[in-house]
Amino acid sequence: MPTTLKSAACLAAALTAGALYANPASAQDYVDPLSQSHIAAIDDTLKDVIANQGVNTAAIAVIKGGTLAWTGYYGEQAPGVLASARTQFNVASVTKTVSAETILRLVDKGALSLDESMAPYWVDPDIRDDPRHTRLTPRMALTHTTGFPNWRFFREDYKLALEHDPGTTYGYSGEGLQYVAKYAEIKLGKNFEELVLDNVFEPLGIKHASFSARAANFKNIAVAITEDGETPKPYCMPGNKYCVGEGEYSAAGNMVISLEEYATFLISVMNGEGYSADLIKDRNRVQVTRPVKYCDEEAPGCPKAQGYGLGWVVVDEAKDKILWHGGSDWSAVTTAYFYQESKDGIIIFLNAPNKFGMDAMPGLIRLLDPTSPIIDQYELWAARE
């Protein structure tokens, strides 16, 4: 059985001088993370992760000062085919960042409003008889305060429901992203995938990412392999018991994209491209509390605020703000974040059975950014797994 990533955690402690941030006491003291010794250490660690720890495919990007500074590819895209810059990864819930940024760009154009009721345009039949549906707004969907469950199929009745009053309580919800996408479609008379293409992918020159399932794209996707060695078809659950149909999309998951194209997107977000300074400030503001780094609020080094902004988890530290999102499903564990002021960031895409990806992720983040508050969250998730 694969082991946890203890080797990477130990190695990271010795690599602090070559990591994203050299001095934990000051987020302004940056160093070059691309020394040959550091790259060699990353390579050695990732080779071990692929060979011995159950991860099938991995891709890592380091962004410095808003520029893609380094990428690494490990494992195989498919049997006998090495991972490369062409490899596309199912990024799971990191898809939500593209959906959220599409909505924000449409808000900036005046096509949508963050605080209008979505009810005149879309009401899910499951909640039509609940009068609280009139309170639902795009802002609630992007801050995960709709009151919806994560997915309706987690409920015994398999129906969507308002489990809390809209706007009152944080509750992570893929249904919320689906809901705001449907609202945008109906209000603007365009399929949401078209809105993503028009407002995000095409302006950024992203040509190969796929927001929906497209058979023509399957050859580029990293092949998922279960713990038992099974290789389900792309967009399928183990045993091929359920497969996403051609052209179907989820605003909350299943986008496939290469590492470099997602880096292009993330750098655009860092730079606030596509919308105004006021909307950037709104995006970067913690609007609902959600712990990421678990610490006493009064303790030195504990974030000033942490929770959801508009579509992104925001960790407001003393000298910088981190915007982050992760993704996780049965075959993928992904993470992407950046520091707003320094415009430094990392992206890690793992194609792996969920447990093995979760075991690996904390050590990989620590290897690149040893003082990252995001490590706490992944250590908690790995322990739960």
Structure, explained:
The chain is an alpha+beta fold and about 375 residues long. The protein has 10 helices and 11 strands. It has helices at about 5-15, 35-50, 95-110, 140-145, 175-190, 190-205, 260-270, 275-285, 355-370, 375-385; strands at about 55-65, 65-80, 80, 90, 255-260, 290, 305-310, 315, 320-330, 330-340, 345-350. Strand 10 (about 330-340) and strand 11 (about 345-350) form a beta hairpin. The radius of gyration is 20 Å and the shape is globular. The model is unreliable at about 1-20 and about 20-30 (pLDDT under 50).
Query: How far is the N terminus from the C terminus?
Result: 15 Å
- Approximately what portion of the residues adopt beta-strand conformation? 15-25%
**What is the oligomer described by this structure?**
single chain
- Report the total helices: 10
Radius of gyration: 20 Å
Number of strands: 11
Main sheet characteristics:
9 strands, antiparallel
Uncertain stretches: 1-19, 21-32
The helix/strand class is alpha+beta
Strand-and-helix sequence, N→C?
HHEEEEHHHHEHHEEEEEEHH
Q: Mean pLDDT, rounded to whole units?
A: 91
Q: Which percent range fits the helix content? A: 25-40%
Describe the strand arrangement of the main beta sheet, using strand numbers.
3-2-1-11-10-9-8-7-6
How would you describe the shape? Answer: globular
